[in-house]
Amino acid sequence: AVLAPVATSRSSSGTSSSSRKAKSRSQMLGRYLPAASHEASADEGEPQLYRRQLLHLRSVLAGILLLFTASALCHWYATSGGTSIGTAGAPREVIELAQISVDGLCKAIPNTCNIAVAWAMHEGIHDHPQWYKGLTSASSWEDFQTHLHKIGKAGCPLPCGKAKLQFGTTVPTTPPPGITPSTPQTTPPPAAPRVTPPPAAPRVTPPAKATPTISKAVTNSVPAAETETCQIINPKSECAEKIKWAMSDGIQAQPAWYPGLTRWSSIEEFQGVLHKGPQKLCPPPCPCHTAVKGEPCHDKVMWAMKDGIYAHPDWYPGVDKFARFEAFQQSLHLQHKTSKMCPAPCQAREWTSPSLFCFSVVRTGSYEPDLMKAQLAKSAGIFACDEFMVLSDSVLNLGPGPGPGGTVQTVPIGSLQVGISKDGTAANTEVFMRAWTAVHEDFRYRAHEWIIKADPDSVVLPDRLRSKLAPHTGPPLYVKNCAKNQGPGWPMMFGSLEALSRAAVEAYFTGAERCKNELGWQSWGEDVFMGTCLDHLGVGNFFDVSISGDNVCTGANCADGWHGNYHPFKNPGAWFACWGQATR
């Protein structure tokens, strides 16, 4: 309607002038139109040609306006703090439009790329920083997307605009399909997508066959009831602080606040309780299950820890021989062939440095099982170490805790009958040879910096031990802790508490047969044998009388505020009286 008067108002006298102007306009418009457009109009009258070209120009201008609108949407979406691209909350049309660039170098982000970037930012950069050279946990979404684009993973295009993923967004915790690495140093291992947190899509739960009936409080398992909204927490968030306090102090001081939980419950289980509270301090946790003995996944993890990591280290990128059980399970979970057998493990509990693996040997039919049960109930003694193990002549359930069926069970090592040693104590060397063999087969000790053997009637104070052992962590060393006498063999490592560095324990396992064959140990107590064996193998030592206050050595004053262990206290009343004095 606007163009018609232009074509009809020209007088016959001004035809040639108007014709020249129209031709000039036509040539100018032709610069912006496909050749076919103006060529096809050659036989048309000038007014019609002019009108047709203006219509084409209007289409071109509309397209340009649409592209500028897309750019504005992209900028708004990246800076408004909205839901991350690819997640619930943004219309699909807006997501795709916001990723179209005028220069054509980037395009709509496929969902596989969104998942890959989210996993890399929240989990990959922490677990495998070597895969993301030049990036840190503070790097932007765009930086991670650019990195994945450069290495050709997950179908990631070049980013069009910056977008920051906020904590609380639902993202996965495992490398999704499409980011399988060409080399272990570049990207995550071949992965069956774990669709789980940090803030997460659902994790794969263990198959029914592998999931025992266990009390929720101590299974280190979280069911898959809330997988659509489960999230991982920001380590600096209020939720993370609440969980930390609840696990260390709250569960002891106010157990009623955490129904169904114990000190041994998983991080996710505490997160679930805080999520359901009236203040909803935490987002819902994602499903997880850390394998326990008797499950197929546990067997796979143990093989990987003992043999696989040595025979095929390339099968476990980012995991070394000293890695924790959960790290090996996670590695197996990410592999296509075993992901169905191994579910995503629950988050590993934080350990204190240096970490301690503690164990004791108890005799059935004696005072020792009841004494250990009392300690376990209070999370005291060796049960305050980062990990622990109890051995016996038969299988005993000591009480609720981490382990099959939600209980702490003793590991049988055969008969504990012993004779009399040359110094009038138990000639128990052979018993403890078997005990150390069981520790080796359990293999959890490999993740710890110090291994502590303690008698059941020893009042062990792990926090004090850590402060005394920390300066000596690393080299193959054991601690001599008693100078009761003088002369050959003194000071010695007294058996109520034996502290060996991981390297010293490794040296013992390597040379145990030498000691057994080359030393006359048959009439010795196990502490004399172990100290002599370690010396025989060239392991170093240092003397620290403050490691243990022992009435069998130089005395035990539970109120001295100095020793890391007191011995002997053979019934729960005496044991906890000493423990109470020492921990005031």
Low-confidence stretches: 1-44, 76-106, 161-219
What distance separates the N and C termini?
94 Å
The value of Rg in angstroms is 35 Å
Regarding quaternary structure, how should these chains be classified? single chain
Strand order of the largest sheet: 7-4-3-10-13
Helix content: 25-40%
Total helices: the number is 17
Counted beta strands: 16
- Percent of residues in beta strands: 5-15%
Structure in words:
The chain has 584 residues and is of the alpha/beta class. 37% of the residues lie in helices and 9% in strands. The protein is built from 17 helices and 16 strands. The strands form six sheets. The chain has a five-stranded mixed sheet with strand order 7-4-3-10-13, sandwiched between helices. Strands 11-16-15 form a three-stranded mixed sheet. Strand 3 (356-362), helix 12 and strand 4 (387-392) form a beta-alpha-beta unit. The N and C termini lie far apart (94 Å).
Keywords:
single chain; 584 residues; three-stranded mixed β-sheet; 37% helix; elongated
Describe the secondary structure blueprint for this structure.
Blueprint: H1 4-8, H2 15-30, H3 35-39, H4 46-79, H5 92-97, H6 111-127, H7 141-150, E1 221-222, H8 238-253, H9 267-276, E2 288-289, H10 296-311, H11 325-333, E3 356-362, H12 368-377, E4 387-392, E5 397-400, E6 407-409, E7 411-412, E8 419-420, E9 426-427, H13 429-442, E10 450-454, E11 459-460, H14 462-469, E12 477-480, E13 497-501, H15 502-518, H16 526-536, E14 540-543, E15 549-550, E16 565-567, H17 572-583
Parallel strand pairs: 3-4, 3-10, 4-7, 12-14, 15-16
Antiparallel strand pairs: 1-2, 5-6, 8-9, 10-13, 11-16
